[in-house]
Amino acid sequence: MLTTLFHIPARITVGATSVPLFGWGLLLAVWAVAGAVVVGLTLRRRQGLAGLSSLLAPLAISGGLILWGLPALDDGQGVPIRGYGAMLLAAAVVGTWLSIVRGRRVGIDADTIIALALEVFVAGLIGARLFYVIEYHDRFFLPGQSPITAIPAVLNLAAGGLVVFGALPTAAVAAWWFARRRGLSVLQLADCIAPGLLVGLALGRIGCFLNGCCYGGLCELPWAVQFPPGSPPWFDQVARGLLPHPTAGGVANPSLPVHPAQLYAALDAAILAGLAVAFTPVARRDGEVFALVLTLHPISRILLEAIRIDEAPALGTPLSISQLISLVMLTAAGLLWWWLSRQPVRGHAATLGGSSE
User: Which of 124, 186, 210, 324 sits a CA distance of 20 to 30 A from 169?
Assistant: First the structure.
């Protein structure tokens, strides 16, 4: 577990002068210069204003983050770089890179994939966070307190707290709307980005391990892990009476050994990503790669949920909310396969697996 990787100082010293790095500081000046260069190069390369449409959102978001977001995260030691947040960023970058590579094989340019990735990533974050906040609302909205006081905790994504299945509806709507605006095939686009989403999920689960969330049950296997005092597994075991409650001034023991469920999930997502890439050349119709992912991921999630103990049974069933959603996804996957089976087989000249001769 490594919740905080390091701190970025809020101010830097240049000679005898202390200069703010965030807010109205040095980083904003660098952002302004870099943004002007990128805009100029885009206008020159595309000979018009059309190319700016894919730049406006990332420039605005990054500028707002520098101006208001980063200063709000300053904890007195600087801006903490959380392990969970760093892995989310890595997930977005690597997943986007893989989607760019796959997109080029069907004529989708890198700028289009980057613009799609930004919209899907932001929409997915919103959906995943909303699902988590709704599911664990008692952790954010305390009795007798105004809901306004919960806003900082709700917005603190770097501290962890995302439900993958909550991202699906918002990310799917964002991808569908993007494809409709750009005149792209939704199924072809889904096939293009599906492995990248799984690679991103694998890296995100490593972030869960660094954060201590999404933990497993007690384990006696050689690869069992222990989490430090104050971690989610430790609090859970204290609440269950498995660990003694630390007395004032006493030394708290680490958690009992548990399954590294987060690493199981990371390995599972990586394997599924590899299967999706391997299946791509033999897929006969647009949408089959996505349908494969929609089939296999819920099955593995149902099995992994049997190892995790951080989610209680839901809706009067012995299943967690994630297992119930997995069953819904499997039903959707079956319907998608049925629908795809009634579509014409595509040619081999423009597939993600490359052309055949």
Answer: 210
Pairing mode, if any, of strands 17-20 and 79-82?
unpaired
Question: Does residue 49 belong to any structural domain of this protein?
Answer: no
φ/ψ of 160, rounded to 5, equals: 100, 165
- Residues 6 or more apart whose CB falls under 8 angstroms from that of 194 comprise 276, 289, 290, 293
pLDDT in tens, 17-64: 888 898 888 899 999 999 888 878 777 765 455 556 667 777 888 888
pTM of the full structure: 0.80
Encode pLDDT of 179-206 as tens digits: 988 888 999 999 999 999 999 999 999 9
Tell me if 144 is assigned to some domain: yes
What single letter denotes the amino acid at residue 188? Q
For residue 148, tell me if it sits in a domain: yes
Q: Enumerate the H helices of the chain as residue ranges.
A: 26-46, 53-64, 70-73, 83-104, 110-135, 151-155, 164-182, 186-211, 232-239, 261-279, 288-305, 321-341
Residue 297 CB coordination number (10 Å):
24
Number of domains in the chain: 1
Closest CA to 277 of 115, 105, 148, 132: 105
Residue 100 tokens, joined:
């760019």
Q: Are 206 and 84 in contact (CB under 8 A)?
A: no
